[in-house]
Design a protein that fits this description.
With 419 residues, this protein is α/β, with parallel strands linked by helices. It is built from 15 helices and 15 strands. α3 packs parallel to α10 and α10 packs across α15. The longest helix is centred in the middle third of the chain and has 20 residues. The N terminus is likely disordered.
């Protein structure tokens, strides 16, 4: 492999009018991101002529570059080219200080390039070193650290869970002070959280591992919810299994630990809180509907109008909608069908309608299941879809509020709607 002195020698022979567009050193794990030359033409090393009066430094440059390549220390005067702050250093050239680790990408672009003094009779620009590869999140904060396992205990307590539900998990535990919280977390959110200086990630939906594969067991809650509405036990179990089976089969084929593996390799503490947050949200809806429904007088259209006043709904682009039934239909007997892993689909919803339920409130439903329900031709059957992201945000916001009360800094994103 040619030495760096050979590269410097070839550059010295370039025609004077040839433009240097980018000059990158990659020496072990120090990254110098580019030297950009704008509005100027200059030769890095002019043959047979030194940089102004710096002949000794220029003549020593090839030896210095080879020493860096070989990992040797440099023995040079205090005012040598490589002795100053990182940057493109030369006589009369100013150097910008490296940014703080938590502001690495702030202002990146032309604004990060500072005008330098002239080199010879030409004007150049220099770029600053943006970041070391192993930049750490900013931990200069006064809030006390909390472990993710403690956060899980807090969520369980808020929801009244005696133990962590099977669709929730601390995948990588650790102390956190600034956390990124999202409804869905994938590889992109992990990297985003890291770039924002977060030292932990909290998702709502299961990310992988045991929690993702444990979702079918949470779907079994549909059976208990149906039985609570008077549906016979054997019918409730049969319809629950009809909903559980395809979900379990679909999960069996997934790359269930892809994101969790990435979090481990990034050493990023990560967890998800699913059922506990959904239980909090479901109880909120139950209490809300009880307040606004006035016996048999309230219509489904009136109920939807009231639901739109919920702060998370007001702040959302997705609003509650009536997907089955007529707005003038009375609400009648109603049920909030949430906090059971996923929606009940046609098997469960049809069973509710067949056993006297007039109005179902749910976060979402698949289009195929909706078409099947439409075939029932039950004119008094109403399906109110409250909206996935705003409904999930109701439960997650109560968890976030509790975390902020403990002194944690929360960065909300990826679907979380904070009114």
């Amino acid at each position: 492999m040619a030495g760096l002195s050979d590269i410097a020698g070839r550059r010295a022979g370039l025609p004077r009018r040839q433009r240097i567009g980018r000059f990158v050193f990659d020496i072990e794990r120090v990254v110098i991101v580019g030297v950009r030359v704008a509005r100027a033409w200059f030769t890095l090393l002019t043959p047979r002529r030194a940089f102004r009066s710096e002949r000794a430094d220029v003549e020593a440059l090839p030896q210095q570059m080879n020493a860096l390549q070989e990992g040797e220390s440099l023995h040079q005067p205090a005012n040598a080219v490589m002795d100053g702050e990182p940057g493109f250093v030369g006589r009369g050239v100013t150097v910008a200080a490296a940014p703080a680790p938590d502001r690495l990408l702030e202002g990146w672009g032309e604004a990060t390039l500072a005008a330098a003094a002239s080199i010879g009779s030409r004007i150049g620009w220099h770029g600053r070193i943006l970041f070391p590869p192993d930049a750490k999140p900013n931990r200069d904060r006064h809030n006390a650290g909390v472990r993710l396992s403690e956060i899980m205990a807090t969520a369980n307590r808020l929801a009244g869970c005696d133990q962590t539900p099977t669709d929730s998990q601390v995948y990588v535990d650790g102390d956190v002070r600034r956390v990124f919280v999202g409804i869905d977390v994938d590889l992109g959110e992990l990297l985003l959280a890291r770039s924002l200086g977060a030292d932990g990630v909290i998702a709502h939906h299961p990310i992988g591992s045991k929690a993702r594969l444990g979702l079918p067991s949470v779907i079994e809650r549909h059976e208990a919810q149906m039985r609570a509405e008077g549906i016979p036990a054997e019918v409730a179990r049969e319809k629950m299994l009809d909903r559980r089976r395809p979900v379990a089969h679909a999960l069996h084929t997934t790359n269930y630990d892809r994101v969790v593996d990435a979090a481990r390799q990034l050493k990023m503490p990560i967890m998800n809180i699913h059922l506990a947050a959904d239980l909090i949200g479901r109880q909120y809806f139950i209490d809300f509907v009880r307040r606004v429904v006035d016996g048999g007088k309230t219509t489904v259209g009136g109920l939807i109008g009231e639901l739109k006043t919920i702060p998370e709904m007001e702040a959302s682009l997705v609003q509650p909608e009536l997907w089955l039934g007529q707005a003038e239909n009375p609400v009648g007997r109603w049920v909030v069908q949430m906090a059971a892993g996923t929606n009940g689909g046609a098997p469960v919803y049809r069973t509710y309608y067949e056993h006297g339920i007039d109005t179902i409130l749910a976060m979402h439903i698949d289009e195929r299941d909706l078409r099947e329900l439409e075939q029932l031709q039950r004119p008094q059957a109403n399906l109110v879809i409250t909206g996935h992201m705003p409904s999930d945000s109701i439960g997650m916001n109560r968890v976030i509020d509790a975390l902020e009360a403990q002194g944690l800094e929360v960065i909300a994103g990826s679907g979380v709607i904070r009114p």
